[in-house]
């Protein structure tokens, strides 16, 4: 799966390269600092993305989770696990955003 960033993301990265680099480095350092593997870290971040209702972050972490070896079943389960916390409407929206990536295959 090739990396295709949304236009606004590309714009921010090109206008603020130092800021973008720091954010990228932060993510790498945090992932390396603990015992959770790459796949599971993206599934956790996917759940958090659903919780904050961020369509772009859901898209991003679905792609990253797939690249890290997650199955579609694991992706949908990571989203559904937060139903009692964020509610069904938010989960349904996140599933539709995951579908944007998973059904495009």
TrEMBL record:
Keyword set, alphabetical order: Membrane, Transmembrane, Transmembrane helix
Domain Carboxymuconolactone decarboxylase-like residue range list: 17-100
GO molecular function, one term: peroxiredoxin activity
Family matches, as PANTHER family: ALKYL HYDROPEROXIDE REDUCTASE AHPD (PTHR33930), BLR3452 PROTEIN (PTHR33930:SF2)
Domain of life (superkingdom): Archaea
Protein name in the entry: Carboxymuconolactone decarboxylase family protein
Organism the protein comes from: Methanobacterium alkalithermotolerans
Residue stretches spanning the membrane: 75-98
């Amino acid at each position: 799966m090739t990396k295709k960033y949304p236009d606004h993301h590309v714009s921010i990265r090109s206008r603020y390269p130092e800021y973008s680099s720091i954010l990228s480095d932060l993510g790498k350092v945090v992932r390396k600092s603990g015992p959770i593997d790459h796949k599971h870290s993206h599934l956790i971040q996917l759940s958090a993305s659903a919780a904050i209702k961020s369509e772009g972050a859901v898209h991003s972490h679905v792609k990253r989770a797939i690249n890290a070896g997650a199955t579609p079943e694991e992706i949908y389960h990571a989203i559904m696990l937060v139903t009692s916390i964020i509610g069904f409407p938010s989960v349904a929206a996140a599933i539709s955003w995951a579908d944007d990536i998973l059904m495009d295959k």
